[in-house]
């Protein structure tokens, strides 16, 4: 699937008063496009977009009006408030003042995968509060600002969690409880581990891991956690770290080379993860080896 980009948005990011700071363009994200910007006051109507739009207000309060005529709604939204626009609907909106925002444009496929393949009808929301969705948006924002190719699995995990939260918390009608899962089979887990081993040095999207287990991304993520007690990102990171430790103890390759061979972006990335997880550094580990 092609990368999601500016052409998949509602056109809001092309407004004259919108000043982008950074976006996920060029990072290869297939089901999510993220953009951070400063917006000035405007009033406009946008055609229906092929993506769901979630806006997180980073500043405020600011007055926002959506809709027209008797159906119009107006609300003063504080920092942390959310604006949600479902896929395929025309949007009329008026922004009453300058505002810093993060926009997340999610494909409808991501929402379906988060709901066991069933369609999800999201509600139109103005000034909603959802602490989990807010934290996921902020985490994605940090991932864009400090992008490392090895974070691809992590970003896929965040995007899947955001889609699942929207499907669970912001659907127009209940979608029903998710079926109970007992985890991956021995054969599925072995196939996933084999794939990780083959591609340990490469960015590894969750979709590829899910395909190895013949599951959708949402099914795989839940069943993988049930089997291992970890998210796919945490698990892959642990295997990379284990491999790096073995190479540092038994080999003589430079630390930077070991880091890249084990799927870390650079030596500093390996050092940061090792210090956080093991309380030591590659240099100290090598000397102790």
Characterization of the model:
Helices cover 40% and strands 20% of the residues. The strands form two sheets. Strands 1-2-9-4-7-10 form a six-stranded antiparallel beta sheet. The chain is elongated and about 70 Å long. It is of the alpha+beta class and 289 residues long. The chain is built from ten helices and ten strands.
Structural class: alpha+beta
How many β-strand runs? Answer: 10
Rg for CA atoms = 21 Å
Mean pLDDT, as a whole number?
A: 91
Helix-strand topology string: EEEEEEEEEHEHHHHHHHHH
List the helices and strands and how they pair.
Layout: E1 18-23, E2 32-39, E3 42-46, E4 51-57, E5 62-66, E6 73-77, E7 82-85, E8 91-95, E9 99-107, H1 108-113, E10 125-128, H2 131-145, H3 152-169, H4 186-198, H5 206-212, H6 217-228, H7 232-250, H8 255-261, H9 267-278, H10 282-288
Antiparallel strand pairs: 1-2, 2-9, 3-8, 4-7, 4-9, 5-6, 5-8, 7-10
Sum this structure up briefly.
This protein is an alpha+beta fold and 289 residues long.
Observed structural traits:
6-stranded antiparallel beta sheet, alpha+beta, elongated, 4-stranded antiparallel beta sheet
